[in-house]
Design a protein that fits this description.
Blueprint lengths: L1 E3 L5 E6 L1 H4 L3 H9 L10 H7 L8 E9 L5 E12 L9 E3 L13 E2 L4 H14 L6 E8 L3 H13 L2 E13 L7 H9 L3 H10 L6 E7 H6 L1 H9 L2 H5 L7 H16 L3 E8 L2 E11 L2 E9 L8 H15 L5 E3 L15 E11 L7 H20 L1
Parallel strand pairs: 5-7, 12-13
Antiparallel strand pairs: 1-2, 2-3, 3-4, 4-5, 4-6, 7-14, 8-13, 8-14, 9-10, 10-11, 11-12
Protein name: BioF2-like acetyltransferase domain-containing protein
InterPro entries: Acyl_CoA_acyltransferase, BioF2-like_GNAT_dom
Organism: Bosea vaviloviae
């Protein structure tokens, strides 16, 4: 289905997930000129999600800018999922990202010069489609930056209701000109800098400390080590480790294989006497890096291996070229103070009622979940 945006030269098309698998070069080109990259919109991420999500439940919107001589340029991509369950109040909705359990951003990827036009065209397409729900649920939406502003304006123009049901602050890293690892850590850790670095250096008293950064195919080969480390801890005992969940294991195997082929995969490992103390699984796109999963040796908890890994990762970043944005991927229940990344990104669980200003069942369900979580938190105190 094609739809022309109102006087903008933007055409919106839906494409099949199977066809999107071949869009790697086009997506990479769009990401380099995007308002904000998002690796979860990549063909690798969408293709991997098909291990868990039926193909007919995935809706991929592409926005194209008409140019001279009949040519077109990709101006936007938004990968969504049809959903109807307790999270949506059992009402039909479209959700982004496709797998919020594992993916950490709901942002579409938009051409920096045509972001508002592309966003408005995509919302108009959804409004005009007779076969799609009129509600968008965006559970991990950054509430700041140019893409959110474009989304806000598109909602205003299309008469749509944008409501934020939950808010939290996510740790991120945005390096400043002239930063190195010591300067950055001193600024972000403040008075705790000396204590944290003493703890980090104290690990060397218990053996030889090393750090390994793997990318591409080498990172893919290291995935079994990551899964084994995770499964050796409490998640393995509880049956929630990736290696204990066949669908999740198949999904991550596909994601890692496809991301490695696209050179967007990274696995970082902090080693003690040659054995993994902690490992991190990351994906990236055009200077934006997302931290997806961490695993650590729980028998070495006295070393705070998770925090130690993040310090080693940060040092490695500044030893080379750090990412423009490092996103910790932390959810709303995570204490931001446990991370060494000092900047904060406002996040929210957003719900958009397309062409409507009335509250929806998904919004009511989100409010109910928020209330239940608050009550549970109070009871634990």
């Amino acid at each position: 289905m094609n739809q022309l945006g109102a006087n903008t030269g933007i055409i919106v098309r839906r494409i099949r997930p199977a066809d999107y698998a071949s869009y790697g070069p086009a997506f990479a080109d769009l990401a380099t000129r995007a308002l904000e990259p998002n690796p979860h919109m990549s063909p690798a991420a969408v293709t991997a999600s098909r291990v868990i999500v039926p193909e007919d439940a995935i809706v991929i919107l592409t926005a194209w800018l008409s140019e001279a001589l009949g040519s077109e340029r990709l101006a936007g991509i938004w990968a969504l999922r049809r959903q109807r369950d307790w999270r949506t109040g059992f009402a039909a909705a479209l959700t982004c990202p496709i797998l919020p359990l594992y993916e950490v951003s709901s942002l579409p990827v938009l051409d920096a010069d045509h972001g508002q036009d592309a966003t408005q065209a995509m919302l108009r397409h959804l409004l005009a489609a007779g076969d799609l729900p009129r509600t968008l649920t965006l559970p991990v939406l950054p509430l700041e930056g140019p893409t959110f502003l474009a989304l806000e304006e598109a909602c205003r123009v299309t008469g749509s209701r944008l409501r934020i049901c939950e808010r939290w602050q996510r740790p991120v890293m945005r390096p400043q000109p002239g930063d190195d690892s010591e300067r950055y850590l001193r600024r972000t850790l403040g008075q705790s800098y000396k204590k944290r670095m003493q703890q980090f250096r104290a690990i060397a008293r218990h053996g030889e400390v090393g750090f390994q950064r793997l990318r591409g195919e080498a990172a893919r080969v290291a995935l079994p080590d990551f899964l084994a480390l995770e499964a050796a801890g409490w998640k393995g005992r509880a049956g929630t480790a990736i290696a204990r969940l066949p669908q999740a294991s198949a999904y991550f195997d596909s994601l890692v294989t496809l991301s490695a082929a696209a050179d967007s995969l990274q696995i970082d490992t902090l080693l003690l006497d040659g054995r993994p103390l902690a490992m991190g699984l990351l994906v990236e796109s055009a200077g934006t890096r997302h931290f997806l999963k961490i695993a650590y040796d729980e028998s070495q908890a006295r070393h705070s291996p998770g925090r130690a890994l993040t310090i080693a990762m940060l040092q490695a970043d500044f030893a080379g070229t750090p990412p423009d944005l490092f996103d910790s991927g932390a959810g709303d229940g995570v204490d931001a103070g446990t991370y060494v990344w000092g900047e904060r990104r406002a996040m929210g669980n957003a719900i958009i009622g397309l062409g409507s200003t009335s509250p929806s069942l998904p919004e009511a369900a989100a409010r109910l979940r928020q209330g239940l979580r608050l009550a549970r938190t109070r009871l634990r105190r």
